[in-house]
Specification:
The chain is an all-beta fold. It has 1 helix and 32 strands.
Length: about 325
């Protein structure tokens, strides 16, 4: 269904939806709460995509709609627009973050239009369709919650000065309960969620545009988005960066000489990475141990094609701009 905010700047006649199925709600909603809907015209897409990255572990995309991109029927003029970021942690859940910090003074109606049966309970919101369900968690702003607006629509109401909305969407089989304990993360320089799952913890964090770095629980990065999975019995560690040039985890884990989008999957003996660089670069990766085999884009590299620094277990590679797949097996 459609998922999106509606911005109603002061003095403007109508809040207007943004989502997969845009709609216009007349201004009577602001006056007496009795909304009257009229079909939205078919409109071209506005705004711009800021980044898109895909890997076997996670996908991420962000876009921005500002005043210069405002299209009648989607974003009200002079609203200031908003920025949306979506992370899909495969195959378990989606994190959706809307940043309204640049918006003008306005009320925001953030709606979810259900295509299945909608259930709103004290501690959970569910959409069921056949043998599948989608569970919704609203984590930010604190104290914000969903209300049933109609038989097939949920709405969360906030104001632009609250800044950001953070939601967790968990698909699954009908009747299942997510094995997660989601909460807003206590991050410096950004915002996002901390999600306990068994013996491991996931972090999905977004850096504030006006901050140089994002830091949480021993991790520090200049990336726009950080995904990390730490702990667990398997010894598996996952780290994902979108944008930026590096990530520090106690010792340096990743350092690049230019912007790089990266997903690192690491066990005690193997490391796999999907990466995209916007220029030729020198990449430095902390690996599990001395390399036994290094494969780049399916081809095993000769020992003189890369460097290894024993102190700190750093693998050093010269790469060209573009997409690459890296596999490292340690001794």
């Amino acid at each position: 269904g459609a998922i999106g905010p509606q911005l109603a700047p002061d003095g403007l006649p109508a809040p207007i939806s943004i989502g997969n199925a845009p709609r216009i709600v007349t201004s009577s909603e602001a006056d007496d709460g009795d909304s009257r809907e009229s079909p939205s015209p078919q409109l071209p897409c506005g705004g711009r995509v800021e980044f898109f990255f895909t890997s076997p572990v996670f996908d991420a995309v962000a876009g921005n709609i500002g005043d210069g991109d405002a299209i009648p029927g989607q974003v009200a003029p002079n609203s200031g627009g908003f920025r949306r970021s979506i992370a899909y942690i495969k195959p378990d859940y989606f994190v959706l973050a809307d940043d309204f910090s640049g918006a003008a003074e306005c009320r925001i109606d953030w709606r979810i239009q259900a295509l299945g049966d909608l259930s709103l309970e004290a501690d959970r919101s569910l959409i069921r369709a056949g043998d599948r369900q989608l569970e919704l968690f609203l984590l930010q702003p604190e104290g914000c919650f969903f209300e049933r607006e109609s038989a097939d629509c949920l709405c969360a109401r906030l104001t632009a000065d609250e800044g950001k909305l953070l939601a967790l969407l968990v698909p699954g089989r009908a009747g299942s309960s997510p094995p997660f304990r989601p909460e807003a993360a206590d991050a410096r320089g950004g915002y996002g969620l901390r999600l306990g799952r068994g013996g491991s913890v996931d972090f999905v964090l977004f850096r504030h545009p006006d901050q140089a770095n994002l830091a949480v629980e021993g991790m520090r990065t200049d990336a726009e988005l950080l995904f990390a999975r730490r702990g667990g019995r398997s010894g598996l560690s996952l780290y994902g960066l979108v944008g930026g040039t590096g990530l520090q985890v106690r010792t340096e884990l990743v350092r690049a000489s230019c912007r790089v989008d990266l997903c690192v999957r690491q066990t005690p003996t193997r490391l796999g990475a999907s990466l995209r660089a916007d220029g030729d670069l020198e990449l430095r990766l902390v690996i599990p141990g001395p390399p036994r085999a290094v494969r780049l884009d399916g081809v095993e590299l000769a020992a003189d094609a890369y460097g290894y620094v024993a102190q700190g277990r750093r693998l050093v590679l010269e790469l060209t701009a573009g997409l690459h797949q890296l596999e490292v097996t340690s001794k």
